[in-house]
Amino acid sequence: MAKKSAAKEKKYVYKFGGGKAEGKAEMKNLLGGKGANLAEMANLGIPVPAGFTITTEMCTVYYKMNRKYPKELNVQIHEGMKHIEKVMGDKFGDEDNPLLVSVRSGARISMPGMMDTVLNLGLNDKTVLGLVCQSGNERFAWDAYRRFVQMYGDVVLGLKPVKKTDIDPFEEIMDELKKEAGVKLDVELGVDELKELVKRFKAAIKERKGIDFPEDPWEQLWGAIEAVFGSWNGERAIKYRSINKIPHDWGTAVNVQSMVYGNMGDDSGTGVAFTRNPATGEKKFYGEYLINAQGEDVVAGIRTPQPINTSTKSSKEQQTLEEVMPRPYQTLESIYKKLEEHYTDMQDIEFTIQKGKLWMLQTRTGKRTAAAALKIACDMVAEKLIDEENAVMRISPDQLDQLLHPMFDPKAEKEVIAKGLPASPGAATGQAVFHADDAEHWAGEGKKVILVRIETSPEDIGGMNAAQGILTARGGMTSHAAVVARGMGKCCVAGCGAVNINYKEKQFEVNGTIIKEGDWISLDGGTGELMKGLVPTIKPELSGNFGKIMRWADKIRKLGVRTNADTPHDSQVARDFGAEGIGLCRTEHMFFEGDRIKSVREMILADSLEGRIKALHKLLPMQKGDFIGIFKAMKGLPVTIRLLDPPLHEFLPHEPAQMQEMATEMGVGVEKIKQKVSSLHELNPMLGHRGCRLGIIYPEITEMQARAIMEAACELKKQGVNVKPEIMVPLVGDVKELKNQEEIIRQVAEETKKKLKVKVNYLVGTMIEIPRASLTADKIAEVAEFFSFGTNDLTQMALGLSRDDAGKFLPAYVEMGIYKADPFQVLDQEGVGQLVEMGVKRGRSTRKDLKVGICGEHGGEPSSVEFCHRVGLNYVSCSPYRVPIARLSAAQAVIREKREKVA
Ligand code: PEP
Ligand code: MG
């Protein structure tokens, strides 16, 4: 009868040990990572101390029932304890042969140190004597008891420091006793003193908490289970989940497991190991251990752990486990091989040897550096452990980023003085300079500099290029500094609000520290950290494994990957990283170099059409030269060139001294310059006279640019160089705008082809970066031969957020969870994503073969790339250094989609 009703009951307890288990590795959601892997090891016949896991579901039920348990749990836990007793041959609460257990948390995803643990549970004034007999070591037994009372008193009974400045009450008692005994270290305390400690600990609990320390092991057990479930909703666990985006309703499992001891004498020990080297990926068993010690001693760093085997030994004095305990070592070797083969991945394992017998306490997928990840994945394919698809899935795209940029020497010391936005990855160290021309000057003298600006503008390009890294006080992830730095593959920390820059004094102040021109500073573009002083960097090597993974990714992916590049040099870098074309060439960047800015300014100042045409005429050969360089670098791959986009005022100086300089150079009065600057002034330039609106009002600009592109293409074609120009009109919101520009472009193109007597195929298309363009994409596609989503502007306009100013409050928005992530960095799939999806669908409803890409900053962000694959884009385009990340992400998107379909 009892059995029948038990069959209907919900199962909350899963047993493991003795060569079998009720759970398995796939049950992580229910059993937590630790519980599922313990079960899996038991099923593999690997020696794990017997135990049971109370499910994560129980945790959720516990909270739903207002911190109470369903009836059936009690029975199931009793059965679980009976199972442990049977396998281990001890008895819970027995005075001669006591079973002692650990009670640990274990969520789906490891949350290191965030939840509670109780060890040595089951000890009391009587069972401690049993442990003395069992271990034959009185000191060990009493030490275990005092540790238990201390841990239980803290975790379950809540005797902890009240204020931050308080000393831990148990430590205080221990220090007192050590003083009385005249000893310095815990290990110098003898049996009598340990007995005294237990007494004093219990008395303190009684006095301060008004609770008698529970002698009943069952009461202890329930108390510990409750504490672990309770710690799921502890302050630090909640905070950790919020930061790491772990859902609060997952709950934690509780693992109750027989204790084994590595501190029972010189035939005992404990250690941690990786099945391959986690730093290099080398196929070598690698780990550390301590004789006669508990797990926490290995981590605490009081004693120096020894290498586990001879092959990783670095000096003669070291005593390896292989030498000291050859039998358990051999068992450990066969187990690690079995585990790696079974999980087909590098494992991070924990073990304990109790009186010569090896026990495995944990196995999990080991964390590794990017270089190790590549090597392990490639080696495992060669070993036929995994296939190419799995290898591609093993590399995290973000991690790949580490490999492409210089990084700080992990051994170097760092003094972080502020934190900004991690705008462009990499590590940079150099002397602070505050003006772009100084950066160029200093760099010209062979110095390493960091350009520090409140924000950057197109005029600063030269200085940015000369600098090792860029630091700005203002601006977000799509600010000028961020976008340009990413394009250059240069480290940038943007929007570092704590930095107060004084251009006049050539210095900045940050949290009380003054940094003057010439002082050394360092930037970590991956974390946003600003450091004082010179922090040495190292250049990571791109090994053959990188190329191998990339080739496999290329075979799998469906999305094309292009690059955003404006110079032949950047185009070449991107090609070396595997770019299959240029998805965005921003022509305005070409207007700043050398003498060009003069002609641009001349055009802007001109009062008549003739004047403008004259100035544009001077620009034409220079632009044409640029396009020739880019077309050549891209060797027949498609090149999307965007017509002029920014408002014209960006090309004019705004400081009085610079205005005067320009006036002298142009031979006009300074008043004229001032007047022009003021007439071009707009309150909201991002929504002002920019994009195609420039070419519509000043068609001669479009004409000149179309001519430069087509003359470059035709001349090269004549020389036998293959070219595929795609001319792109920015900021279109109405098809009539595009039609207007398209007519100019086509007319110039046909004229040029005729004049140069050569056939060149070209496309005319548009950016989709205004919400109205997405909504009317069917009409726009009747004219446009391709679309490229400019998701920087599209995000700005869809969310009503300024690209340049939102950095002030965006980090707070993300921290408060209002936005999941910075929408300028990670595509807002729920909102902006709809505009993209709609644009693709409507566009292809009128032009079936419409080619669609994306060229906003999201084109190199992994989750956004996956989105682009799902909604059927043809390609993504991103800055050169992100090309490999996009290639990998695009392949992972295909694999994930396939796996979801199968599931
Ligand atoms: C965009 O708006 O997404 C884009 C690529 O153009 P820009 O960043 O130059 O405005
Ligand atoms: Mg734009």
Query: Ligands in the structure?
Result: phosphoenolpyruvate, magnesium ion
Number of spatially distinct domains: 4
Q: How many β strands by DSSP?
A: 33
Q: Assign the CATH superfamily of the largest domain.
A: Phosphoenolpyruvate-binding domains
β content, as a range?
Answer: 15-25%
Arithmetic mean of pLDDT: 92
What coarse outline follows from CA principal-axis ratios? Answer: elongated
The low-confidence runs, each spanning 5 or more residues with pLDDT under 50, are: 1-6
What is the helix content?
40-55%
Secondary-structure content class: alpha/beta
Please give the CATH architecture of the largest domain: Alpha-Beta Barrel
Identify the strand order in the major beta sheet.
Answer: 14-24-23-16-17-18-19-15
Give the end-to-end Cα distance, rounded to a whole number of Å.
39 Å
Q: What is the third-level CATH name, the topology of the largest domain?
A: TIM Barrel
GO molecular function: ATP binding; kinase activity; metal ion binding; pyruvate, phosphate dikinase activity
Cofactor: Mg(2+)
Catalytic activity: pyruvate + phosphate + ATP = phosphoenolpyruvate + AMP + diphosphate + H(+)
Binding site for substrate: 586, 642, 769, 790-793
